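User: I'm curious whether this sequence folds into something compact or stays loose and floppy. Could you predict its structure so I can see for myself?
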Amino acid sequence: MGEGRTLMRWYLDSSVALDVALRPLGSSASWMKTELAAGHEFASSGLLKLETVRVLRREGLAIRSAGHVLNNVSFFGIDDGVLRFAAALEPHIKSLDAIHLATCSLLGTGVALVSHDQQMLTVAEELGLDVHDPLCPDAHFAGGPR
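Assistant: Here's the prediction. I'll summarize afterward.
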């Protein structure tokens, strides 16, 4: 890394992870590949593994088709602190999204939520999180190396 360059830590939600897994030549996959090549890190809740596997099974696809995504993510467990934080979130957001937002929030500063879900991005911004949508890079911008 060059001097003065800030590393990003991206928190992936299932909308982006599944987009990368199901469309390995798409915009999100290209974005993730670029970020990995730049040395940036990816994190998520262990919930992401479950969501990804369930969708792949529903679609009759091989679980290994998500390997290029899941193998590049550091996963964090869902404990009582995450569940309490998720339960306390306002405004209303779906339960699994609340777990992702809680996990991302509890990782501290220097983490930006990456999602294609507008409601998730809006609530994340309300929580003070940096956000990014690889499909709409001008609509949401997370501070960091650009």
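Summary: The CA atoms of residues 86 and 95 lie 8 Å apart. The chain is about 45% helix and 15% strand.
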